[in-house]
Amino acid sequence: MAFKSFPPPGSPPGVLEHRAGRQTYPSRLCLIWYDGDRLEENANANAEDFLKYQDRAGIRWLHLEGLEDLTLLQDLGAQLGLHVLALEDVVEGRAPVKVEDYSDYLFIVSRLPTDLEEFQDEQISIFLGADFLLSVQESHIDHFAIIRERLRHGQGQIRQHGADYLAYTLLDFAVDSWFPILGNLGERLDQIEDRLLNEPLGQPTTELQGLRRQLLRGRRLMWPLRESINYLLHHEGVLISERSRIYLRDCYDHTFQIIDLLENYRDMASGLIEVYLSSLNTRLNEVMKVLTVIATIFIPLNFLASLYGMNFKTNVSSWNMPELSWPFGYPFALGLMLIVALAMVIYFKRKKWI
Amino acid sequence: MAFKSFPPPGSPPGVLEHRAGRQTYPSRLCLIWYDGDRLEENANANAEDFLKYQDRAGIRWLHLEGLEDLTLLQDLGAQLGLHVLALEDVVEGRAPVKVEDYSDYLFIVSRLPTDLEEFQDEQISIFLGADFLLSVQESHIDHFAIIRERLRHGQGQIRQHGADYLAYTLLDFAVDSWFPILGNLGERLDQIEDRLLNEPLGQPTTELQGLRRQLLRGRRLMWPLRESINYLLHHEGVLISERSRIYLRDCYDHTFQIIDLLENYRDMASGLIEVYLSSLNTRLNEVMKVLTVIATIFIPLNFLASLYGMNFKTNVSSWNMPELSWPFGYPFALGLMLIVALAMVIYFKRKKWI
Amino acid sequence: MAFKSFPPPGSPPGVLEHRAGRQTYPSRLCLIWYDGDRLEENANANAEDFLKYQDRAGIRWLHLEGLEDLTLLQDLGAQLGLHVLALEDVVEGRAPVKVEDYSDYLFIVSRLPTDLEEFQDEQISIFLGADFLLSVQESHIDHFAIIRERLRHGQGQIRQHGADYLAYTLLDFAVDSWFPILGNLGERLDQIEDRLLNEPLGQPTTELQGLRRQLLRGRRLMWPLRESINYLLHHEGVLISERSRIYLRDCYDHTFQIIDLLENYRDMASGLIEVYLSSLNTRLNEVMKVLTVIATIFIPLNFLASLYGMNFKTNVSSWNMPELSWPFGYPFALGLMLIVALAMVIYFKRKKWI
Amino acid sequence: MAFKSFPPPGSPPGVLEHRAGRQTYPSRLCLIWYDGDRLEENANANAEDFLKYQDRAGIRWLHLEGLEDLTLLQDLGAQLGLHVLALEDVVEGRAPVKVEDYSDYLFIVSRLPTDLEEFQDEQISIFLGADFLLSVQESHIDHFAIIRERLRHGQGQIRQHGADYLAYTLLDFAVDSWFPILGNLGERLDQIEDRLLNEPLGQPTTELQGLRRQLLRGRRLMWPLRESINYLLHHEGVLISERSRIYLRDCYDHTFQIIDLLENYRDMASGLIEVYLSSLNTRLNEVMKVLTVIATIFIPLNFLASLYGMNFKTNVSSWNMPELSWPFGYPFALGLMLIVALAMVIYFKRKKWI
Amino acid sequence: MAFKSFPPPGSPPGVLEHRAGRQTYPSRLCLIWYDGDRLEENANANAEDFLKYQDRAGIRWLHLEGLEDLTLLQDLGAQLGLHVLALEDVVEGRAPVKVEDYSDYLFIVSRLPTDLEEFQDEQISIFLGADFLLSVQESHIDHFAIIRERLRHGQGQIRQHGADYLAYTLLDFAVDSWFPILGNLGERLDQIEDRLLNEPLGQPTTELQGLRRQLLRGRRLMWPLRESINYLLHHEGVLISERSRIYLRDCYDHTFQIIDLLENYRDMASGLIEVYLSSLNTRLNEVMKVLTVIATIFIPLNFLASLYGMNFKTNVSSWNMPELSWPFGYPFALGLMLIVALAMVIYFKRKKWI
After folding, report:
1. Where found, per UniProt (chains A, B, C, D, E) (predicted)?
2. What does the angle CA C324 – CA C330 – CA C331 come to, to the nearest 5 degrees?
3. Which alpha helices (DSSP H) does chain E contain, by range?
4. Phi-psi bin for A203: left (phi > 0), alpha (psi -120 to 50), beta?
5. Cα–Cα distance between E349 and E21 in angstroms, integer?
6. Distance between CA atoms of B46 and B62, rounded to whole angstroms?
7. What predicted TM-score, i.e. pTM, was given to this entire model?
């Protein structure tokens, strides 16, 4: 877990440093400038390239992948006037999902899944200004290729809107990326359910606990994301236009759907554990009933057989096991056993055990 | 589950497209125009028919069944000035239950049950404008036949009120449709309870978990429905008249009753699981007690019988099983057994096991 | 359960009709007019009698028992200007506990217990106007005899105050009527607790679940009642005088006490179930320990006895059970058994099982 | 429980009457008048003595012990202008913990413990006016001796402040009195924990349930007390001075500490029950394992021994138990048994049961 | 536990006294005066040294370690105008985590861990004035050495900001100090999890309960800390500058992370207990199944063997155990046993027990 690398208490805030033992990737800055008509793209920009577009209207989208080069981030921060605490959050990569208002710009933190199987994810940090958007991610996974594509071809309304719409697009992407993970989790739950029906004692608790933990993590991630989007929805300021709010409302609905699914799965997982434990109990009852029925029928019979296996000498006196010398001694013994067994069976029948 | 067909992250919003693998039904538009005196009905209208009534006072109710023909929906949206995100919600059919205010009209999403046995339902989308109401459903189930009937015959006050009252009527219908489902669920719970009394080990957990899951789904559906109606109740705007609000309050009460029933059933289901598990435990105790009593009485007896079945040669020395040659050896052995058995019985009596 | 008779979805609101299969009682209207000095009473009034007192100052209390005659209720509604939706709530008899403000009058719904043993109750509906109060109950149980008595004899302050004080008196009655029920429930819980101490395996779960369900019902009834009284306490309007508010505060305290008792009992019931299950487990442990101790001591002994009961022929070779011919064979066998038994006992002592 | 003596529903409010079956103590009124310099005390005052100090500045503290003499209370109420509903709350002695604002005075209800072992307590009612404080308790336990002492000797700031500070002093006393009770509860929990470690099957559930119930009671008492103090802290009015508020804040912190302790103990009690149940389960497993190992090893051995104890006649044919006549029949049988036993032991070793 | 030393109820507030039985450490006052350029430090100051810097701009930080010398604290309080109730909170050392506004200064209470293994901690009290900060701790652990170091070398912005930034630095330290504790707890949870996988019956409940209790304590400490920082964030007043608020927001995020970790661990601990109990149940089932299979197969066989070990005299009549004299009696008996055993095995195979 990540907590071991927390900075020692008392270290000064706002220092950009890599966490010990954390993998970093080479930094790559991609700069896209666009307005309704034109789009210019520089896939390998430096911090100064940003200045070229300063006097031109239109939106500048800076996307930084990899945090190896902290100077680049620092330069960007200086150019755009970003607060060093926000930059520290970007570098540390474990800020809570949130929106912070720095008046000139909004600092939005969300998380993107990096692995469909496990609830692995990385931080995506967005600085939304009036005419620029800086997004930072840690890995080199090309999450936003599809959005660049939409920008290039002017698909949908993305080129007609401002930077706030671009921020919405990224956030919407961040939200929707969780659906495949959920689909995956749902399938695993379904598999466990199927397995449990066929093989009721398959000990699924450990696996279900693992899933539950992931669902709880998802929940703890999704609720602040929802709150963040709600904050943007009701943010009073010029950075979010009225037109974009309606789109954010749609994005808000998606978080609602995800939370709904998460709750569903949580109920399902809890339910499966309960079903498992209850079937364990039922099974134990059944096992014990079989043992008890067999044992309690045969134990008295066995006693009778042992009784007539005793070696008391019948010739010493007529008190000593005279049954052994009866002509019908054996049938008598068998009959006795039959009666005892029948009585037992009737008793169990009455108790509805057999 | 439906999550598998969520649009891939990054796709542009506001695109009307059918979800992959989802069944659609042919589109059929029914247009009803009415005021207090007259009513005109066109069961197979097209988007332009709507315009005919533009200059006439009165209410226009457009009801669209089936979403195969997305162009029809798009045309309707253009005519009525509906936002494309709302239309996307209509087409996708899995929007959360909600009310959205687009100033000129309200967009209301609710759900209608399509199957009495299972908690199957479909989305019903309502656009409420000042003088029109557009309702859209996916299937061809004729939910609202009774309401059209009431409109035609001017039953109740439905023709005297505006479009808001019609919206209330549809919402009220959507709420009341859940009562039969609940009745059904209640009956199944009663059946399980009866069965559990007769046959305490019938393993009802799986079934009860299923019911519980449906109840939770009902709850997750009903709470936002209640909130939506509450929102309409307190909505400040001209679209909802003061007169209709009193009726919405009645509808609000119904959601209250449904939630109350759902909670009741949830308690009942949880209680039944607890009763079941507890009776499993009691049963196990009883079984174990019978086994223990029988076994612990007979095991020492059996030992005694086996003891005197040993073949030590009595003629070698007088130390070797002299009991076998006693004249009253056998009665002595039987007496010993009786004493042991009685001691055990008294012990168990004291422990209140028998 | 009552849900089976819910009106079919889509039926028009505000229609006064008896629910199918519900018992109704003949309607009887009692009219009492009073002011500080005088009181006139008509135990068998009709809707028009009400008009006689229209011009006279003072309070008119109309109390309707039985709902067979819906016309009477309708006439009363017309005379007093009551909304048809409120009247529908009265007739249906399953409205949630609530207060509704219709500006000219308040519509208050509460519930009165009709049976001390079970949580059976009926709806009591109160319309509180400036100078009149209409109360409606379904059954002929004479709940309010004592209040009429207080009115007739001018006991307490009841004749000095307005209709709001009369409404408070009825509500206070409705709240206080639950105390005997709670006393009853408490006694049953005490009985179960006593029984559980004497006879720990008496399977009280089903009964406790029943009680718990009733307590939950009480809770679901009492919380909205509390909220309703709170609403009246803070209602801004002329219908509730400042002087009566202090009395309502007292009534509010009583709901607090009832909820406190309900919570107490709920904890008690849950605690009893836990104690029961835990004592089941303890008992099972004890039973198993006895079985295990007896069985594991005697099983090896029995084996030894059976061993020396084998019939290998000692005359064939000196390898065949020479023990049988030892002069001290039998004492040797007994000694062996004793040693085994002692070893077992010591083992169990060490494990603290005996 | 106290609910049995609730007044019958419908009885008029504001009547001062003793609850049936409740013990009352003789009434004793103690009047203390003080200002910064002087203090006069009358340990056996009557209602009129109060008037003597009417014209003199300073604070009058009336403390009434015992409620036998309801006339005295009524006279006091009349002199001080107290509402009859508040007096009724005083007499009944089961009002919820609360603060009520009667504009001229505040009516504060709290509870004082009367027994260190059990959660026994009595109501303490405080009427706080501008220049007087009336406190009423039911029993003759001299709770406030220490406060009178502080008044007499002018210890601390108590003589420099107004009646509000005196009220704070009493409330602070009422809060702090719960600490010893909590200490007691904590010790009992510690004892149970110790006992559970030594003797894991000591069935502590009933006792822990009792403690839990007391902790819940404490919680239900402490939360409204906290709310009451918070109400006083933020009460807008002249009765509470700014200077006294800081002291009330301190008292508020104490309720916080008590609630924290209560929560702590509740967790502890729940944890102990869980530990107990889990150790029951572990123990049962251990017991069953021993039984199973012993039984499954010896049962096959026993069978073999019984087998060779059969009496088939070897002289009839060579098919009948030829082993009995083998020279090494007995060693063969013993060897067989050894092999079976070893196989079993190896099997259990592999399963890690032994 | 600490509750035993609570002051007796009724003792006057605002008295500085050591709690009985509590260890105190010698008092040592360290005074640091600094502004952007200069820094003066007196590691062994007395209360009057403070006055020297009264006329000079800049920040005075007084740090008091150890509370043996209450006069020193009292003098400091007098010099700085601190309220005696706040000082009492400092001396008692068990005030809840809180912020109190005394207009001229803020009184902040937090807690610092003193032991990495256990959740041991001590109170740290901070008085934040316009140009001074007084911090008090009980022990001599030199928590803040690193912060003094930063001050001396002017690292970060600490010398450029006011006393509010210093307060933030201390609070941030107090928050971050909990991370190593959490790391420790997390490691112990991981160890328990590993152990549980290898040795499923290791009875981890007691240890997990202990961890859970510590996690709950952490939670009860962290929530009010979070609220306190939130209070400072939104505090309206001159004591907290706008510039410092951004840093407090960062500190607020850290509490968020800690609470998140705590919740994580709590889920983990609960999950481990569930996994343990479920594996206990599974294990019991397995054990019982083995016992049942072995016992129910051999019990009937044993009975048959005992049966033919009976000593009925075959020479008395042909009814007495004629099987013993059959030429193939023994093979017949063995065959019978084989059939019974096979039937049993097939039965168990069908039931999927083996």
Report:
1. Cell membrane; Membrane
2. 140
3. 49-52, 70-80, 84-92, 145-152, 163-176, 178-198, 205-233, 242-307, 329-350
4. left
5. 69
6. 10
7. 0.85
* Closest-approach residue (CA) in chain E for A103: E246
Does any CB of chain D come closer than 8 Å to the CB of residue E285? no
- Give dist(CA B179, CA B56) in Å, integer: 38
pLDDT in tens, D143-176: 999 999 999 988 778 888 999 999 999 999 999 9
Low-confidence ranges of chain C (pLDDT < 50): 1-4
CB contact, 8 Å: D270 with chain C? no
For chain E, list the contacting chains (3+ Cβ pairs, <8 Å): A, D
The residue behind tokens 């009948």 is D320
Whether residue E325 and residue D310 make contact (CB cut-off 8 A), yes or no, is no
* Assigned CATH class of D23-278: alpha beta
pLDDT level of residue E2 (50, 70, 90 thresholds): very low
pLDDT digits (tens, 9 = 90+) for A296-311: 999 999 999 999 999 9
Identify the architecture of domain D286-350 in CATH.
Answer: Up-down Bundle (1.20)
The ranges of chain A with pLDDT < 50 are: 1-4
**C195 within 8 A of C275, measured Cβ to Cβ:** no
Per-residue confidence band for E4, with pLDDT thresholds at 50, 70 and 90: very low
* pLDDT for residue E283: 86
Q: What is the pLDDT of residues E6-40, one digit of tens each?
A: 677 888 888 888 887 788 899 999 999 998 888 99
Residues in contact with E89: Cβ distance below 8 Å, sequence separation at least 6, in sequence order? D250, D253, E95, E107, E109, E125
Give B322's DSSP letter.
G
Minimum Cα–Cα distance from A100: chain E residue: E249
pLDDT at residue A76, rounded to an integer = 93
**Minimal Cα–Cα distance from C71 to chain D, Å?**
31
E residues 3-42 lying closer than 8 A (beta carbon) to D: 3-4, 6-15
Render pLDDT for D15-51 as a digit per residue (tens, 0 to 9): 888 887 788 899 999 999 998 888 999 999 988 888 8
Comparing CB atoms, the residue among A253, A264, A306 nearest residue B302 is: A306
Q: Which CATH superfamily is domain A24-278 in?
A: CorA soluble domain-like (3.30.460.20)
CA of A329: how far to CAs of C139, D109, D316, in Å?
Answer: 77, 88, 22
| Residues E156, A12: C-beta atoms closer than 8 Å | yes
Cβ atoms of A182 and E225 closer than 8 Å: no
Residue in chain C nearest D14 by alpha carbon: C156
CA–CA gap between residue D304 and residue D326 (Å, rounded): 16
Give B281's contacts (C-beta < 8 A, 6+ positions apart). Answer: A281, C277, C280, C281, C284
Query: pLDDT tens, D228-246?
Result: 999 999 998 889 999 899 9
Amino acid at B137: Q
Task: Count the residues in chain B.
Answer: 354
Band of pLDDT at residue B202, cut at 50, 70 and 90: low
Q: What is the CATH number of domain E22-278?
A: 3.30.460.20
D54: confidence class by pLDDT, cuts 50, 70, 90:
confident
Class for domain C25-278, per CATH?
alpha beta
Q: What is the pLDDT of residue C277?
A: 86
Beta-strand pair D59-65/A59-65: unpaired
**Measured between CA atoms, how close is C303 to chain B, in angstroms?**
9
Query: How many CB contacts within 8 angstroms connect chain C with chain D?
Result: 175
CB distance A311–B330 less than 8 Å?
no
C313 → closest Cβ in D220, D309, D324: D324
Domain locations in chain B as residue ranges: 25-278, 308-350
pLDDT at E201: 61
Beta-carbon neighbour count of residue A115 at 10 Å? 12
What is the DSSP code (8-state) at residue B323?
Answer: G
- In three-state secondary structure terms, C81 is coil
